[in-house]
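Long-time lurker, first post. I've been practising inverse folding by hand and with some scripts of my own, and I keep getting stuck on stretches where the structure tokens seem ambiguous. Below is the full token string for one chain I'm working on. Before anyone asks, I'm not after the true native sequence, just a reasonable design that respects the backbone. If someone could post their per-position residues I'd love to compare against what I wrote down in my notebook.
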């Protein structure tokens, strides 16, 4: 074999090796995109009342975003939440209330009424634990409050 043929053979073998490794990596690290699921709750609450309970899908992180639309108290809050099957746990951002810094929220609870995240400027409307596996919106204000909550998983 001549030097030309040996170098050409080496290039072809190297190209085949690169192609094999590329295909192997592509198959072992594939990513599947699914269509996100969404639940949407519209609330219109009299003073001191609660919305219906919402049970997030178990053993999966879900994004819970809420907004308060009542004039003068409108704001937003969000948490990433997990229903472990025995309790709820979460971490997120409280609604803006005029403070110079952003307030975070985090916790885990099985007790009804435990605070999760505020949805309004005055920090009177919040998402609370409803049961070990569900949450609700609570209106602690002296007047009617309305808005929505979106859950995405």
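-- Answer (accepted) --
I ran through it position by position. Result:
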């Amino acid at each position: 074999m001549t030097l030309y043929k040996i170098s050409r053979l080496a290039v072809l073998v190297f190209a085949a090796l690169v192609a094999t490794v590329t295909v192997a990596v592509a198959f072992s690290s594939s990513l599947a995109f699914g269509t996100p699921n969404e639940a949407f709750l519209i609330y219109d609450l009299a003073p001191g009342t609660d919305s219906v309970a919402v049970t997030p899908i178990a053993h999966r992180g879900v994004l819970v975003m809420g907004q308060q639309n009542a004039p003068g108290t409108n704001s937003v809050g969000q948490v990433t939440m997990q229903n472990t099957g025995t309790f709820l746990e979460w971490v997120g951002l409280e609604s803006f209330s005029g403070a110079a810094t952003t307030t975070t929220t985090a916790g885990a609870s099985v007790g009804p009424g435990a605070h999760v995240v505020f949805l309004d400027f005055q920090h009177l409307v919040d998402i609370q634990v409803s049961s070990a596996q569900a949450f609700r919106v609570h209106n602690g204000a002296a007047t009617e409050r309305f808005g929505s909550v979106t859950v995405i998983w």
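A couple of notes from the structure itself: The chain has two domains: 1-31, 38-152. The first strand starts at residue 38 and ends at 45. Happy to go over any region you disagree with.
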